[in-house]
Amino acid sequence: MAAYYKPFAPLIERIKRDGKCLEGGILKVDSFVNHQIDPTLLQSMSIEFVRRFANKEINKILTIEASGIAPAIMVGFLLNVPVVFAKKKKPSTMNDMLITEVFSFTKQRTYSVCCAKEFLGKGDKVLFIDDFLANGNAAKGIIDLVQQAGAELEGMGFIVEKSFQHGGEMLRKMGYQVESLAIIDSLDNCKITFKA
Ligand code: G4P
Asked: For 87, which DSSP code?
């Protein structure tokens, strides 16, 4: 087993039971993670994130709308720290903001992600939480926002990492503590192969 990877058994079992494979290397977990949500599983996954980042001093959770919000809130609740979600559309009421561009491999387009300077700044010790880590483009956007803000990124937690898209490899090489509860090595031939 890779030293950085500890599979979270309740999630692995649930993916085996209810996860579906789509063409193009997409794992559908919308019956329990990102459309219908199983709050009991979400709670246990969030407790696991808190355990894995217990070595860090965290005062803010950051995510990107939409699917990251649910796990981010649960982790923020457990740590009793605020949760900020970066927005994919600039709100008309937001003037003083940090902005970055993210390329979505899945959607093959670039979109802007923004966050009010008021909610991310110097002195913030940030944990980024999201549902999927694929190529890591969303994470790169978050790194940029955190750097612009002069804050510190203490770690990144993902529910599912797809190792064949190499985002995790890139982020770990950059020196970040990346914790993924399930790592999938392949979805070839619509078969889910987990990292051992
Ligand atoms: P990257 O950020 O790691 O580079 O990934 P990519 O651009 O490929 O991902 C774009 C979107 O697709 C993200 O959601 C991501 O969570 C989602 N995604 C990536 N791989 C999978 C997968 O195998 N299954 C599912 N269900 N989603 C995947 P998003 O477009 O930002 O949408 P939202 O759902 O957060 O609003």
From this structure: B
3-state secondary structure at position 195: coil
Tell the residue number behind the tokens 């579906």, with chain if given.
20
Tokens in use for 43? 């709670």
Ligand 1 atom at minimum distance from 68 CA: 35
Beta-carbon count within 10 A of 146 CB: 23
Q: Whose CA is nearest to atom 18 of ligand 1?
A: 132
List ligand 1's pocket residues with C-beta within 6 A: 26-29, 34, 66-67, 104-106, 131-138, 162, 167
| Predicted confidence (pLDDT) per residue in 8-56, tens digit | 999 999 999 999 999 999 999 999 999 999 999 999 999 999 999 999 9
Given the CA of residue 138, which atom of ligand 1 is nearest to it?
Answer: 2
Quote the ligand 1 centre to 131 CA distance (angstroms).
Answer: 8
DSSP assignments along 24-40, one per residue: TTEEE-TTTTSSS--HH
Positive or negative CA dihedral for 185, 193, 29, 158? negative
| CA of 4 relative to ligand 1 center, distance in Å | 22
**pLDDT tens-digit readout, 5-21:** 999 999 999 999 999 99
